[in-house]
Specification:
The mean pLDDT is 91. It contains 3 helices and 16 strands. Helices cover 19% and strands 32% of the residues. The chain has 186 residues and is of the alpha+beta class.
């Protein structure tokens, strides 16, 4: 039996730092950012402000850099499913651009969603995350009840199962701004 952290894979250098910088610069200036929230079956959680302090933008078809992101996520997921062959991806959610300002955080949670954020096509098998910058302090993503902390490196990514064994959180950003992009794979 594998250790739980064996199911978390880090991929270094999946996107150039030049491209990640361009994505951050472009969306910082042009995205219609919204405050992120936690969803519950009845809608938004009344506890959202205690669970997340982050701005988000959902990248849509036709948006700048979407094809670069699509190719990067497909490459990471392809590498992941070569190792874990029982996963058969059917669809990717839209790409959510995450902006954690200084003081930003996301409390421990599990990505076992079905219908939040406009996602309508089933429970995700895996979550993929791309780190766009590393010029901030704090903001670590910690998974599996503290057993794994992802390396903080612009242009790298992680893929992990979206189930109860992989709760994760983003620690408070203590200096600067943290940018990442994620997608769920069903």
């Amino acid at each position: 039996m594998k250790n739980v952290v064996d199911y978390i894979k880090h991929y270094d250098g999946v996107m150039s730092k030049d491209t990640t910088n361009k994505i951050v610069d472009y969306y910082y200036q042009n995205a219609p950012w919204k405050k992120s929230s936690f969803s519950v079956s009845e809608g938004l959680s009344p506890e959202s402000s205690k669970r997340v302090l982050m701005n988000e933008y959902w990248i849509k078809k036709g948006d700048m850099y979407r094809e670069d992101l699509k190719n990067t996520f497909y490459d990471m997921v392809s590498q992941y499913i070569k190792v874990f062959t029982k996963i058969i991806p059917e669809n990717f959610s839209q790409y959510r651009l995450n902006h954690y300002p200084e003081g930003g955080f996301m409390k421990n949670h599990i990505d076992n969603i079905h219908h939040s954020h406009g996602q309508q096509f089933g429970y995700p098998h895996i979550t993929a995350l791309l780190f766009l910058n590393d010029d901030y302090e704090g903001g670590e993503i910690v998974l599996a009840d503290g057993l794994y902390t992802a390396p903080k490196k612009a242009g790298s990514g992680i893929v992990f199962p979206s189930n109860f064994m992989f709760p994760h959180e983003v620690k408070k950003v203590t200096k600067g701004h943290r940018y990442s992009i994620m997608t769920w794979i069903v």
